[in-house]
Amino acid sequence: MKNYSRFWLLCLLLAGFVQSAMAQRTITGKVTSVADGSALPGVNVVVKGSTTGTSTDAGGNYSLAVPSGTITLIYSFIGLETQEITVGSGRSVVNVEMAESATELTQVVVTGYNQTQRKDVIGAITSIKSEKFKDIPVTGIDQALQGQASGVQISQSSGTPGGGISVRIRGNTSISASNRPLFIVDGVPVYDGPVSGRSFGGQEDNTLAIINPNDIESLEVLKDASAKAIYGSRGANGVVIITTKRGKNNKTSITADVQRGITDIVQRPRMLNATQLVELQREAVTNAGQDPSQQGLITGVTDGVDTDWVDAILRQGVLQQYQISAAGGNDRTRFYMSGNVRDEEGVQLNNRFTRYSGALNLDHKASNKLNVGANINMSISRNDRVKGDNFLDGVYSGAIKSLPFYAPYNEQGELYGPNSIGYAGFPNFNPVGQALLPRFTTHGLKILAGINADYELVRNLRFRTKFSMDYNNAEEDQYEPSGTAIGGFLAGVGGRGYGVYITSTSYTLINSNVLTYYLSLNDTHHFNALLGNEIIYSQGRASNVQGRLFPSDDFTYINSAGIVDAGGSGFSQNGLLSFFGEIKYDYKDRFLLGLTTRYDGSSRFGQNRRFGLFPSLSAGWRISQEKFMESVGFISELKLRGSYGFTGNERIGNFQFLGTWGSVTYNGATGVGPDNLSNPDLQWERTREANIGIDAAFWDGRFTVTADAYSNLTDNLLFAQPIPLTTGFGSIQGNVGSISNKGIELTLSSVNVDRAVRWTTDLNLTHNINKVVTLANQDTLFRGYSADGVGATNAVLEGQPLGTFWGLKFLGVDPATGDAIYEDINGDGRISPEDGQVIGNAQPILFGGFNNRVTYKGFDLGVFFQFMYGNKTLNFTNATLINAGADIQNNQHVNAWRRWKNPGDVTDIPRYELGNTYNNFHSSRFLEDGSYLRLKNVSLGYTLPARWVGKVKLSSVRVFASGTNLWTLTSYSGTDPEVSTLDGSTTAQGIDFFTLPQVKTMMLGVTVKF
């Protein structure tokens, strides 16, 4: 009986199993990219309404057992458009093509040490893909940001290739510490200062110009505390995360890119010719009551020679760039490698920037749990510089000032030496000789390298460790021969050459360790946690030596110098020990919450304040996910978000908190003496940041809006606090004062036409209000070209923004006398430094960019505008070129022809009178509206039909033409409203003092993919 019962039980179980098997079926298929047909691994395939699912393998294939009958399969992957496909009972194969998401709100975004979807971001982050700047011939990665992101103000300080770039995110936060953002390349914080140890007239070169922008995949700009508090004491100025290109799971593709073009400055200064200048000089002498025929400065001068010195030192430059890259891989190993050569011939004679770069990125799946990777980016540069800007012996400044009735060459075709032409005065050297004869060569080397490992400890718990290095080396080889101003008569010993050799090496070592954990409860509560630590150590060494009295100009190195009497060396180091964490939570993909904190300890600060905590809290509400929004069909995404937190700035010199001693000389004896007072309470600057924003997408992503309003307050400013001189010191490094930045950012993107013709538009606008809230005392701090208030160009004072201009207020020219009229604000009946006042500021009211892209079949057209409105520019060049008063030894601008000449003349330029300095006092006469609208780039490309290039076994071929800085709308009378003489200065920005203008570029290129 028992055996009989067991038999029937077995039959029943077997029947149930057979019935269950007959009720299910297997669906197979392949998922590929709609863009290029490549396989898509890792795509989730789920039966709607159930937990049954799988994911595609390395070849994009999947196999899934599903219930019988009609079902719906959901295909999803981060950054791709989710698809739902209904499958009937008779269908067993389902192949799917997936496209990138139609809206940026579902794109993948890198956020600090992690990444997430745009829809889940609750911080102020702007993403820039490489397609936005691929046709713009930018030199460095910071230049690629210009006009591309709201809240980011980029200015190229001059037209010098490889020159400095000013980068500000949400305004200036510091007076004496760095205002530049933190740049992170593939997880490595990089040094972004100058390569050279010597600035030329306020202009620096730029180490970020050594990194090849063509290797960049994307840039993420982190702007609020929610996004950047994870970087703690280094995040106050914003963070720019650069992700370079990596390989993909498909066949190897090879891309060759060739670009070649010409460059020229956007505008040449308009100077007087020889006849006009002679007339003006004689008029100035006559107005001074002297006889021009008896005035030694102009006796015998004629207009028989008329040299255009600006044309003499400028040329049409040539820009060429060549790159080849390869990318590919399989399900286990992926790679990207590239090599690039960029050669930019500057518009000034003897000026050239050349860069050789290479990159290699590797990713390997060692097992189902372990992934390893490595990256190296190396660049070698050579920068042949020329002296420029406000250098008294600068090439461009000298050409503007030089007198047109002299020539650069004598009758034998030889260059005139510094004492051979013009007056004996310093400004009248030969600028052509100054360009051609010296050697100012800087050799730069930058290496970014890292190795990482990612291991899954248990399900959803991963550990990632990375070791990285940023290495920088520079060697400067400089020689000024006897035919130049310095080597000719200012070298100190008979004018027989002057040489300098400088070398510097710095490196940063970084180790970061991060644990990440993901938890989902009932598909309702989602947690994403991150915990990590980071150790950063930096070291730098530098040395220099100078020599004079060379035997001849054929011997140009220091070992040939007759006198080697100056030099020096230095060493520096600093470290940062950090612990950080982040928790992100979302409820039903509707309510989002984030908590981030970092605990930093820096060797740059005193033992009492070495460690600090930088927390932030953020929240978001995806309103579009609410049921009451289902009836509002035209809104596809709507999210409200806010954040509040703290970040810091520790970027000052090393060990300034220490009381140090230095060498001193007294009464002929040398010894040591106190050099700096100690301050064990010295700490980082702290910025309190509050942000509220909204992200919206309409009509399935056809129109998107991102808007942010923020209020930031930076206190504990790192500042040399004045103390009584009775202490034996004038100041002590402390934390005093505060600065605020408040603003509004708006980004609009639209797909205007999406048919055979596709037309997209991107517009970003930023309004930032910067203000110095408090200082150590209420005394005005004078900056710029004077620090005592007498002729000062800039001032720092409470209630005014950084970059405030200071001077006399110019009221016009007296029609009766031709003399300048200034406002006498203290009413004492005379004009003096006490009548100085705020006359404007360099901060714009509004800035941004406007980008349009149109595609039709194989054609693509891009038009990009960049603009700035409401800022003032100090045309300090005009202090020399328009009524220089006591000095008539320089050429003058053509606007000098509008000068006052006779009683009754109405003009804004005072009369010319030799020795009259009153008419040339520093005043608002030299301050102009610096607003501009610039056509930054126009590119036109054509991609040849696939059937054509396929015949020669090519994947694609694109030819294109590109132009930059083609047109500028501005009322500024100088050559370029964008330049800034004191490169990177915070307190003295917006000054144009003989600064080389931007260059315009016309290029042709071809990109071939194999």
UniProtKB/TrEMBL annotation:
Gene3D superfamilies for this protein: Carboxypeptidase-like, regulatory domain (2.60.40.1120), TonB-dependent receptor, beta-barrel domain (2.40.170.20), TonB-dependent receptor, plug domain (2.170.130.10)
Species in which this protein is naturally found: Arundinibacter roseus
Keyword Membrane carried by entry: yes
Pfam families to which the protein is assigned, alphabetical: CarbopepD_reg_2, Plug
A single GO cellular-component term on record: cell outer membrane
Location in or out of the cell: Cell outer membrane
Record membrane topology: Multi-pass membrane protein
Protein's name in the database: TonB-dependent receptor
The family this protein is said to belong to: Belongs to the TonB-dependent receptor family.
Keywords noted in UniProt: Cell outer membrane, Membrane, Receptor, Signal, Transmembrane, Transmembrane beta strand, Transport
Signal peptide residues on this chain, from the entry's feature table: 1-23
Domain of life: Bacteria
